[in-house]
Amino acid sequence: MKVAVAGCCHGALDKLYETLELLQRRHNVRPDVLLCCGDFQAVRNEADLRCMAVPAKYRHMQTFYRYYSGEKKAPVLTIFIGGNHEASNHLQELPYGGWVAPNIYYLGYAGVVRFRGVRIGGISGIFKSHDYRKGHFECPPYNQQTIRSAYHVRNIEVFKLKQLKGPMDIFMSHDWPRSIYHYGNKQQLLQMKSFFRQEVESNTLGSPAASELLQHLKPSYWFSAHLHVKFAAFMQHQTTSKEELPKATKFLALDKCLPHRDFLQIVDIEHDPNASDSLEYDAEWIAILKATNNLINVTPKSWNMPENNGLHAKWDYSVTEEAIKEVLEELNHNLKIPSNFILTAACFDPSKPQKHREAVHTINPQTTEFCAQFGLTDINDRIQQAKEEDSVRGEYEEEEEEEMDSTGSAEEHSEYNTDNSGLSSINPDEIMLDDEGGDEDLSTCSVDPSPDHPPDFSTSFSDIRIMPDSMVVSSDDAMDSNNEDLEKSGANKQSEEKSPNERSLKRVGCNENGNSGMKKIKRRNQAIYAAEDEDKTE
Question: Where is the composition biased (Polar residues) (predicted)?
Answer without folding.
Answer: 417-427
